[in-house]
Design a protein that fits this description.
- The chain has 682 residues and is α+β, with helices and mostly antiparallel strands.
- It has 22 helices and 12 strands.
- The chain folds into 5 domains: 170 residues; 120 residues, no CATH class; 113 residues, PAS domain (Beta-Lactamase, 2-Layer Sandwich), CATH 3.30.450; 90 residues, Helix Hairpins; 152 residues, Heat Shock Protein 90, CATH 3.30.565.
- Helix content is 56%, strand content 12%.
- The strands form 3 sheets. It has a 5-stranded antiparallel sheet with strand order 2-1-5-4-3, sandwiched between helices. A 5-stranded mixed sheet has the order 7-9-10-12-11, covered by helices on one side.
- A hairpin with a 5-residue loop joins strand 3 and strand 4.
- Helix 2 crosses helix 4, helix 3 runs antiparallel to helix 4 and helix 7 packs antiparallel against helix 8.
- The longest helix has 57 residues.
C-alpha cells in the first residue's frame, strides 16, 4: 500500500475511533446501540484500499468498533465484538457495491452513481442492523426489533453523511469564489447552532435547508457532503446535550432506542435533498463545460481546415460562416460575403448544368433544394468563381442543418478544391494516351525488327551455306586437288563463314528472346538432364585442348518449369565461354545445386582462366561487348553469348551474376527462384 494511502486510512480510522467513543459515551441512558456510530468512516476506509489489503483494514475496523463499545458500561465484550463484526460486515457490503465487485473505482458523476450510492447506504445499513438485531437476540440485550430499527436509522445517516467524502475526485466542480465560500460556511455554522439551541421552536431547524441548497447549487459535491457532516455534528452534539427542537419531553420520554429518531430523520432528509441536488447541478455544469469545449473544438477545426472551404448559411441562404479555408480558396474575406447569397460564387452556365444533372428547374433555389435532398455525404462537383474571376473546381458536400426541435435553420457546405487534381488527372490521361501510342509503335517496330532479322538471316544464311558447301567440295578435291596455299585460304574462308553463321544464329536467338510476341514451350524439365546434354555438346571441343572439365550434378532430378532448349543454350554459352578463356592445363567445373527449403536451384560454371578486369564486369552481359583481354588474346566471338545467357535467365526468373579474380579465373552463376518447379500462368 502506498505510504500516502496508508496515512490517509490511518487518519480515517483514528477519527472513526475517536468519534465512536464519543457516540457511545453520549448515548442516551438505557440505549443499546450507541449514538450514531460513524460507520461511514469505516466503510470509506475499506472502500479506498486495494483489494489485497481489504482483510487487514476490515480486521482493524472490527477491533476499533469492539474497543469503542467496550468502553460503555452496558456493553459486554461479547456484545462489543458482535457489534464490531456487524460494522465490519457493513463496510464490506458498502465496498462491494461501491466498486461493483472490485471492477472499478467509485465516482459520483451521473444518476447511476447516485443510485449506487443510495443502494450502498441502504444495503450496508441493513446488513449492519441485521447483525445488531442478532446480537441483541442472542445475548438478550434490549428488544431486538427496536435495536434493529434504531441501528438501521443511525447507520443509514452515518453512511449517507460520511461515505460520500471518499468518492474519487472527478475534476473541478465548484464555480464560486473564496469570499462567497467563507460567507456560506460562516452562515452554516451560525444558523445551525442557533437552530439547535431552543427546545420549543422546531421550525428553526428548517433554516439550515436553504444553506444546504445554496452549497449544492454553488459548491462541489464533496464540499456539500462536508457541509452535511458539519451540520450533523452540530445537531447531534447539541441534541445530545438536551438542546434543540428534538430534545423536548415528547421524545425524551420515548423508548431509549427511539430518542434519536428525530435527529436521524432530519439528517437523512438533509442528505437526501442536498446530495441529489448537488449532483444534478454538477452534471448540468459539466454538460455546459463540455458544450463550450465542443464549440471551441468545432471552431478550432473550422479555423484549422485551411485546405477545405466551409460555408454556412441561415434558412434564407445568407452566408453566416466563412472559414479561413474558404477565404484562401475563393479569395473573399468574411466581411465581403456575410449576409450575401452563395449564388455569388456560381455562373449561370454552372447553375444550368447542375439543374440538368439533378433534373430540376434551372433556378438556384431549386438546385440548392434538390442538392439538399440528396443522401447525406453525397459529394458533387461544383464550379466556383474566385473573387479575381478565376474558376475553381470544388468537390462539395451540401448538408441541411436541423436544430434540436427539428426545425430547418440553414445549410452548411464543405468543399475540397480539386482543381489541381483534375488538371493533374488530365495531364496523366494525356501522358497515358501518349504512352499507349508509344507502346503500340514499339510493338510495330519490334515486329518490323523481327521480320527484318528473319529476312536478313534468310538472305545471308542461304548464300553462306552455299559458300560453305562449295568450300567443302573444293577442299575434298572434287574440282581438282588444291595445293597447300589454296587449302590454307579455303580453311580461312570456311572458318569465317561458320563464324558468320554462328553470329546469325545468335542474332536470331537474341531477337526471339526479346520479342514481345515470343511464345515459349514451357514445361517441367529436369535440369540434371539439361546440364548433362549441354556437357556432351561442349566436351568434343576439348579434344584438341589440355583442359579438365568436371560435371558436378545431383543424383536426383532437379525439376524446373521452363524451355529445355533455352536452358541448354544457357549452359552451353557459359561452358564454351569458359573453354575459350581457360589456357591449357586449366580446369572447368559445371555445377548444379538442387533447391532447398529456402532457396531455388543454382547453376554455376567455374573456370581457372584468365579472369575479368574490374572495369569490364559491369558490361559483361551487354550485347556485342568483349573484354579487353579477349581482344588482347585474339579470342574469337561476337559478344552475344553472355547477353543471350542473361536473357534466358531473365525469362526464367533467375538472377545472373559473375565473380572473378583477374588472372585466376571466373565463376558465372544463375540463381533460379524458389518454387520455379511449379506451373504458373505465363
Amino acid at each position: 500500500m502506498p505510504k500516502s494511502l496508508g496515512l490517509r486510512v490511518g487518519v480515517v480510522l483514528a477519527l472513526a475511533f475517536a468519534l465512536g467513543i464519543g457516540s457511545v459515551l453520549a448515548a442516551p441512558p438505557g440505549g443499546h446501540i450507541g449514538f450514531m456510530w460513524p460507520v461511514g468512516l469505516a466503510s470509506g476506509a475499506v472502500a479506498i484500499v486495494p483489494r489485497r489489503h481489504t482483510a487487514l483494514v476490515v480486521t482493524l475496523v472490527v477491533a476499533l468498533v469492539t474497543t469503542t463499545y467496550a468502553v460503555g458500561e452496558q456493553y459486554s465484550l461479547q456484545i462489543a465484538l458482535g457489534y464490531g463484526i456487524g460494522v465490519g460486515l457493513e463496510a464490506l457490503v458498502a465496498q462491494h457495491i461501491l466498486t461493483a465487485g472490485w471492477s472499478r473505482t467509485w465516482q459520483m458523476r451521473d444518476l447511476n452513481d447516485l443510485g449506487r450510492f443510495v443502494g450502498v447506504c441502504v444495503g450496508s445499513a441493513f446488513a449492519g442492523a441485521l447483525v445488531f438485531t442478532l446480537v441483541s437476540w442472542v445475548y438478550d440485550f434490549g428488544v431486538p426489533l427496536h435495536v434493529g430499527i434504531a441501528a438501521f436509522g443511525a447507520h443509514l445517516v452515518g453512511q449517507a453523511s460520511l461515505l460520500g467524502l471518499f468518492r474519487e475526485h472527478v475534476g473541478p466542480e465548484e464555480s464560486y469564489g473564496s469570499a462567497e465560500r467563507s460567507i456560506t460556511w460562516g452562515l452554516t455554522l451560525l444558523v445551525t447552532t442557533i437552530a439547535f439551541i431552543p427546545n420549543d421552536v422546531p421550525s428553526l431547524a428548517f433554516l439550515v435547508l436553504p444553506l444546504l441548497g445554496w452549497m449544492a447549487f454553488r459548491g462541489s459535491t464533496r464540499e456539500v457532503m462536508l457541509q452535511l457532516v458539519v451540520v450533523g455534528a452540530i445537531a447531534s452534539t447539541l441534541s445530545g446535550q438536551g438542546l434543540g427542537p428534538f430534545s423536548n419531553t415528547l421524545w425524551t420520554n420515548a423508548d431509549s432506542e427511539f430518542q434519536d429518531i428525530p435527529s436521524v430523520l432530519f439528517l437523512l432528509a438533509c442528505a437526501m435533498v442536498s446530495i441529489p441536488f448537488s449532483m444534478a447541478v454538477t452534471m448540468q455544469r459539466r454538460s455546459a463545460v463540455q458544450l463550450v469545449q465542443e464549440q471551441a473544438r468545432s471552431e478550432r477545426l473550422v479555423q484549422s481546415a485551411r485546405g477545405i472551404a466551409i460555408i454556412g448559411t441561415d434558412s434564407l441562404g445568407r452566408i453566416n460562416l466563412f472559414s479561413p479555408g474558404a477565404e484562401s480558396i475563393l479569395g473573399y474575406t468574411p466581411d465581403e460575403v456575410y449576409g450575401q447569397s452563395t449564388r455569388m460564387f456560381h455562373t449561370e452556365a454552372e447553375i444550368a448544368r447542375q439543374a440538368a444533372e439533378l433534373g430540376t428547374d434551372p433556378t438556384y433555389v431549386s438546385v440548392v433544394r434538390a442538392t439538399g435532398e440528396l443522401p447525406p455525404g453525397t459529394a458533387r462537383i461544383w464550379q466556383f468563381v474566385r473573387k479575381d474571376g478565376i474558376p475553381r473546381t470544388l468537390s462539395t458536400i451540401f448538408s441541411p442543418i436541423i436544430d434540436d426541435s427539428g426545425d430547418f435553420v440553414g445549410y452548411v457546405a464543405t468543399a475540397d478544391d480539386i482543381t489541381d487534381r483534375i488538371d493533374a488527372e488530365a495531364v496523366l490521361e494525356k501522358a497515358l494516351h501518349t504512352e499507349r501510342r508509344a507502346v503500340k509503335r514499339l510493338t510495330e517496330i519490334d515486329q518490323v525488327k523481327d521480320q527484318f532479322v528473319s529476312s536478313v538471316s534468310h538472305e545471308l544464311r542461304t548464300p553462306i551455306t552455299n559458300i560453305v558447301g562449295y568450300l567443302e567440295l573444293l577442299m575434298d578435291g572434287v574440282y581438282g586437288e588444291p595445293n597447300a596455299r589454296q587449302n590454307d585460304a579455303m580453311s580461312r574462308i570456311d572458318m569465317n563463314s561458320r563464324r558468320l553463321l554462328t553470329l546469325i544464329d545468335d542474332l536470331l536467338t537474341l531477337s526471339s528472346m526479346e520479342s514481345i510476341d515470343h511464345r515459349r514451350r514451357r514445361s517441367q524439365v529436369d535440369l540434371v538432364t539439361v546440364v548433362t546434354r549441354a556437357d556432351e555438346i561442349v566436351r568434343p571441343s576439348l579434344l584438341q585442348r589440355d583442359l579438365e572439365m568436371v560435371l558436378d550434378v545431383p543424383d536426383e532430378p532437379v525439376p524446373l518449369i521452363g524451355d529445355a532448349g533455352e536452358l541448354e543454350r544457357l549452359v552451353i554459352n557459359f561452358a564454351t565461354n569458359a573453354v575459350k578463356f581457360t589456357p591449357d592445363g586449366g580446369r572447368i567445373v559445371v555445377r548444379l545445386i538442387a533447391a532447398t527449403d529456402s532457396e531455388g536451384p543454382v547453376l554455376e560454371v567455374e573456370d581457372s582462366g584468365v579472369g575479368i578486369r574490374e572495369e569490364d564486369r559491369a558490361k559483361l552481359f551487354t550485347r556485342f561487348f568483349r573484354t579487353t583481354r579477349a581482344h588482347e588474346l585474339g579470342v574469337p566471338g561476337s559478344g552475344l553469348g553472355l547477353s543471350i545467357a542473361k536473357a534466358i535467365a531473365d525469362v526464367h526468373g533467375g538472377r545472373i551474376s559473375a565473380t572473378s579474380v583477374y588472372g585466376k579465373g571466373s565463376t558465372f552463376r544463375v540463381e533460379f527462384p524458389l518454387g520455379a518447379d511449379q506451373v504458373t500462368d505465363d
